Every structure is written in structure tokens, then in C-alpha cells.
Amino acid sequence: MKWLPFELHTHTPHSDGIHTLLEMCRKAAELGFRGIALTDHNTTSGMADAAQVTEETGVAIIPGLEWTTFYGHMLTLGVPYCEWRDLGPKDIHKGIDRVHRQGGVVGIAHPFSLGSPICTGCHWEYEIQDWNQVDYMEVWHETLPPMRNHNAPAFEQWTNLLNQGYRIAGTAGRDWHHSNDESDPPAYTYLGIVGDTDALTKEQAVDAIRTGRICISMGPLVTIELQADGQSYHTGDVIRRSDCANVETVELTVRIDHPSIASRRQMVQEEGLTVIVESNLGECCRSALADGATVFQHSIRPEKLLWLRVRLYGMLSGVLSTIAFTNPIYFED
Amino acid sequence: MKDLLIVEGTLTPLSSKTHITYQFNIPGPAESLRIDFSYSPKVLDDKEQARVLIEEALDKYVDPSLQAVYKEQWEKFAPLKNLLTLSIDDPEGFRGSAHRHPNHQHHVLSPHESSPGFFAGPIHEGVWRVTISVHCVVTSECRYQLHIREGEIDHEVASI
């Protein structure tokens, strides 16, 4: 498996974006992305150029769409257009089924953005009857996402849902409409890609999101591994409680890989990082990393754990901030 | 050029979050379809009305602890705008949409090329549908015009 940075929320002139797919993918390559999801508002016609643009830029293009409806914006990935115009505020599950039946995944875009009439349909107002049907939530939205007000309640809602036992992936999305050099930096959504990574497919990206093999970061890739009774588990994996019944603790290893890209290394200070281990029981541990250290280990008692994730905290463009977070490793009875 | 549909209408804020669908028949295969769509006004000019609507939205969507700070900066969210978008279904199904903000739009659909947002492909005979999605009307009235024609092939695939 390889971890590759993706941008999962983008637009072109096929909806209201300014840059063409080619211009955007050239810029994406410069920013260090290996793939993007093309999520134009309510159409997939922009995919017509995708193969050629990938050939020219090396950036994989996953077909997607942003359902830009009256009651919320929902990202769909891996499927063609699915009908939304007949759905009311209590009908979202009918729509989610249409995407799932074709093998795609759905994600709630920017759930706490301001809604109509400031931004039409941008605040999530659909009634969700079963959160198990929601594959992912865009908890980091726009550029410099840890510093945006509307992402705080999104991250909190995600955590609350995890606490209730739902397994929902957390992603980032720039909502990228325009390429220019003056913009603040976007986050990476690192996806854990299984199989051949030379010619990335939509199935590989969809599988990573569905499985929760995801790390969100302003730069460094953070991966987690839990050793339980001789077995190894990674981001997105589920540990059965019976598989760690014989041990008092499970052993967590956190690895931090700083990206090679110079602009990212300047933005995220590699000294003074703090590793925070979070779970449904709250913060399990908070520890300053020795300068230059890229591995952190900690023993954790597994009882009563439903999920566990790691957050990296430190200096981002001169401000103390969350720099990265993993998706959880889950526990089940 | 042959006219297929010429319609217009007047909307009020009550029409926000509704769809208006027109269904029309194309009697035989055509070389292209040309769509002109416009609506007006685009912007709510009345500052006091805008302020009331913005403050209502901030009450609804912003955490109570931050509402006062946001309301001080209410002008950042002005001017408020009407947003109507167009989508098309051909006899086979969804043919594309133009979710964008300009209030004067021209689209062409043809076998080998279509305006951004729409799929290229044959202009089959049969029943077509065009849908105006009324995302938001903030002005007391908003008038729209929609004109669809059957046309010949040329190299003009314009879009605004």
C-alpha cells in the first residue's frame, strides 16, 4: 500500500470554476498532489478531457460530482451523475442509495458553511436517518482549513458521530475554483492506495475512502499502527476485542513523514511538534516530539475503546495549529 | 433555425428551492440545440433588505457565540444574489447542467461538441426537458426568459 496526496473537491468551467482541468492539474502537480477528484456542480461533463490531462500532468482524475442542491451539498465519487432534483429535505437516503448502488461513495461537503441566501444550499440541512450510510465528511474545507471557523463544528460533529459508534471517514477538500499563486495552501488528503500506483483508478480511491485509509494534513503524512497480541493494525482497520483479550495494552506507533516539497517544509515547522492520541474516551496522551524525531510509541489499554486517532499539533505558518490528523483505527466486540 | 420553446415567468422569494420544468418535443433529429436563458435582477440592491436577510441567515447558521462578531461584518456577505441554474434531459436521460452565476447564458448542444456542463451527443427526436432550478430568489420579483431553438451545425459553442 502507498499513501498518496489527493485533492477531493474541485471545479472547472463545466460548473463555476475558473481554471480548466488542465490548468488545475498542472497546478496540482506543482503542489505535490498525485490525484484529484473532479467534483463539478451537478455535472460530470468535464471528465471528457480527463485521460488526456492525466497523460500530460501525471495527476490522476477521479470522476465525482458535487450535488449542489437546495438542502445541502453532497460529494459523490466514482459514479456518473445520479439524480437529485426530485429529492426533498427528508429524502437524502434515496439519493445516497442511488450512488451506492452504482458502487460510489458519498460525502457531506462543508456541513457548517453558511446557507441560503448567503451561499445557496451550502449548509447541510438534509435529515439523516442513518449515519451508517454516509461514507465521509469534509471536515476540513477550503485553504488553510485548520484556521477556518466553519471547520471547527464539522470536526466536532465527526468526533461525536465516531463516539456514537459510526465509522465515517473524515476528509479535506479545497473546493478549488481558481488556480493562482497567491492562494493560501490547501490540505492534502492522503489516501492509502492498494495495488498498482502508476495508473490510479477510481476504484482504488473509492476503496481507500470507504475503508478509511486516510490522513489529512497541511504537510507531513501521519500513519498509525497498533500491535495487538502479535497482529498489526493500521489506519481504517477494525480490531476485534476478542483479538486483544489476552493483552493488557496495545502498542501504538505513530510515524511522521515530512514531504519533500519545499513550500510545505517551509510552512510546517518540523521542530516543536506534539502528538495527541484521541479516542472516544477523550485524549489518551499528549506528548512533545523530540526535535527531528519521526517515530512515537505509546502503550494503550484497549478496553472501552471504540476508536483511536492521532492528531499532530505544531507551528503552521507561525501559528500554533492542528497540522494533521489520521482517520481512526476502530474497535468492535 | 426553428423555435422549439419560448417561455418566460416571474418569480418571488416563495419560489426559492423549487424547480420549473418545461417539456418539449423535437419532431425529428436536429443538428444542434441552442438555448438562451436569462433572468433579472441578479442582485438585491436594497441594503437594508439585504441586512435583514443576512442577519436572519447568521442567526440560523452561525454558532450563537460568534453571531455578534459576524453581524458586525454583515456587509461582507452583501450583495445577496438570485441564483437560477439550468439543466437538460434528453429522451435518454440527463444531458448536463450549467451551475454557474451569470444571469445571461447561451448554450449549444451538438453531436460533437457542447457548451461546458453539457454532454456532446446526437440531438435525438423525442421528448426533451429543460429544468430551471431556483436555488434562491432574494429580490421581491425575478423575471426569467428561456428560448430554445433547433439549429444548424457551426463552430460556435459559446457559454457564459
TrEMBL record, chain A:
Domain Polymerase/histidinol phosphatase N-terminal: start-end pairs: 6-71
Pfam family for this entry, one: PHP
Source species, domain of life: Bacteria
Single Gene Ontology MF annotation: 5'-3' DNA exonuclease activity
InterPro entries attached to this UniProt entry: PHP_dom (IPR004013), PHP_domain (IPR052018), Pol/His_phosphatase_N (IPR003141), Pol/histidinol_Pase-like (IPR016195)
Name the UniProt record assigns to this protein: Histidinol phosphatase
Lineage: Bacteria, Bacillati, Bacillota, Bacilli, Bacillales
Automatic annotation (TrEMBL), chain B:
Domain of life: Bacteria
Name of the molecule in the record: Uncharacterized protein
Organism per entry: Paenibacillus selenitireducens
